[in-house]
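Troubleshooting: if your tokenizer reports a length mismatch, compare your output against this known-good record of 273 residues.
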Amino acid sequence: MKTKGIKLRWLYETCYEIVLPNGTVILTDPDLTLHGLEVAAKDIERVDYILVTHTHYDHTSDIGYLVEKFGCKLLVGELSAQDLCRCFNLPYSCIYPVGADETFEFPDVTFHCFRGKHTAPPPDPKRGRPESAYVTTVNRFGFDGHGNSDQYGWLEFFDYVIMAPNNQTIMICGGIPAFAKAQEVAKRYRPDVLIRQLGGLPDPVSYAEWVDKTGARIVFPSHHENIERKFGKPAAEVAVDVNKALCGMGSLSVFVDPKQFAWYEICTQIDLL
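Known-good structure output:
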């Protein structure tokens, strides 16, 4: 499926399906099937690459199914890779262990990888304990053996810059906003599309201030399902607040309140398809 520009849709949490102009399909942090959504992993028609920001279950649960079905390439932090392979019985041939400031050049796409921070050290004192790696997850999450990967999810986090063959650029970033590396990277690449969660920022104005410093043209949220709970108002109202703040500071960035499962195409403008 070739397009004029980048196509993308927000599925759930930090999972985006991205289609480049040459038809290459990238999926980020797949966790769909466990939640009984309108779109599950079985409904995805093609995946060439999976990008894993970190290995908490809500970013990885569909990886085993997708890798087996599509034989896709999987980019994941080098510390986390082996336990993720054990958890989902993944072939090492599909794994591309990611290190800090590392670049992967494939014929159809280039990925620049940068270390981020999920949480400020030390990790969450209740969940970030070594002994919790041995506690079964089957009753809560529907599958077993993910404990070690959950531990690495606290310790290792990556942001990604995706460079399409038509020179359009997408940046996926998250983690704590106080970690300045993501802004430095964004300033370097000036992404056409920035996907950045609102978590960790106290209000929409602070989010707008953070985004403005990146120079990104179009901004999509991740973990969008949490916005109303976090800010006490519907996502559409939060989007208005963010864009009002961006406009007030003279920013060229535009924040999008994505409709779940709806496709958007980024050319010279954004259209809801």
